[in-house]
Amino acid sequence: MSAPDPTMIDYAALALDIKRWARELGFADVGISGTALGHDEAYLERWLADGHHGEMDYMARHGTRRSRPAELEPGTLRVVSVRMDYVPPGTRDAWDVIGDGEAAYVARYALGRDYHKLMRNRLQKLAERIGQAIGDFGYRAYVDSAPVLEKALARNAGLGWIGKHTVLINKRAGSYFFLGELYTDLPLPADEPASAHCGSCRRCIDICPTQAIVAPYRLDARRCISYLTIELRGSIPEEFRAPMGNRIFGCDDCQLICPWNKFAQEAVEPDFAPRHSLDGPKLVDLFAWSEDEFLKRTEGMAIRRTGYEGWLRNIAVGLGNAPTSDVVVDALRARADDPSAIVREHVAWALSRHG
């Protein structure tokens, strides 16, 4: 990075402009932080040492670049953190879907267009707007695209605190939002970090179907339904299959129960609207998708990440937990000889649940 002449820029005024431009681009909030993450680095090292990352080897592969922004992007002095609300209006009630054993539950963040490219493009436009105002400067935009401690940076930028479920919470907007970052070499004034407001509440800990929140602020990903349905590539441990219920892609229980989400804001981005009625579809209908249908219908969506085999595996578990009916049993039997050994295993388990 090569920074502009600092004597020619009013950085306090520029910071205010950046926040205004970010909101004009559709971000719900924006803050600025420094790069010191020593406490968070120590926490990450303990978490990795405990094996709580499961098969997510990439969490350890990047070393200290995740907790030291200047090692990831040399010259970084400040991080501009942004957030964008993602739950669109009119979405079927989440608890209603979870309580409907014939329906499939997809985490609310994954119902519409994949947010990665959308937010990264907006951050790129923000950087270009800054460049128009001050000339060339060093920056790099990230949205889950590199080893970044995004929640810690957002907390330090004043966008919220990290709750006991390890999700960022904003006292004016709950936790249903995406995060993105603009690493920059500009010595902008940093905002005050957000203070924590979980108090003695432990609703997120108590409600977790698989008890993945093993202590306040400590998540064992190996037990987390989001990890099991998205990151895990092999068989889902049997002890977690029944607790998964009908959650086939991700899990929102710890957020749904959080009292701060009474302040959650609806998304204003049209691309986050549910596609293919995925805010409450029938399990048997999704299980009937061919691989071509899966690839076509999930194009541009985060759901694609699980892959077709993982998609069928997850739905098979959901069908195993569904109320017994001829339709459910017939759907499972139709895939009893699936080419995938993993799918066959989970179908056999599901059929055993129906006698």
UniProtKB/TrEMBL annotation:
Binding-site list for cob(II)alamin: R66, D144, L168, L179, S226, C251, D252
Pathway(s) the chain acts in: tRNA modification; tRNA-queuosine biosynthesis
Protein name: Epoxyqueuosine reductase
Enzyme class: oxidoreductase
Role description: Catalyzes the conversion of epoxyqueuosine (oQ) to queuosine (Q), which is a hypermodified base found in the wobble positions of tRNA(Asp), tRNA(Asn), tRNA(His) and tRNA(Tyr).
GO CC annotations, alphabetized: cytoplasm
Binding site for [4Fe-4S] cluster 2: C208, C224, C251, C254
Keywords noted in UniProt: 4Fe-4S, Cobalamin, Cobalt, Cytoplasm, Iron, Iron-sulfur, Metal-binding, Oxidoreductase, Queuosine biosynthesis, tRNA processing
PROSITE patterns per the UniProt record, alphabetical: 4FE4S_FER_1, 4FE4S_FER_2
UniProt KW Zinc-finger keyword: no
A Pfam family that the UniProt record links to this protein: Fer4_16
Boundaries of every 4Fe-4S ferredoxin-type domain copy: 189-218
InterPro entries: 4Fe4S_Fe-S-bd, 4Fe4S_Fe_S_CS, QueG, QueG_DUF1730
Binding site for [4Fe-4S] cluster 1: C198, C201, C204, C258
Cofactor(s) named in the record: [4Fe-4S] cluster; cob(II)alamin
GO biological process: tRNA queuosine(34) biosynthetic process
Cofactor binding note: Binds 2 [4Fe-4S] clusters per monomer.
Entry's EC annotation: 1.17.99.6
Family, as annotated: Belongs to the QueG family.
Subunit and interaction comment: Monomer.
Gene field: queG
Catalysed transformations (reactions): epoxyqueuosine(34) in tRNA + AH2 = queuosine(34) in tRNA + A + H2O
Keyword flag ATP-binding: no
Compartments it resides in: Cytoplasm
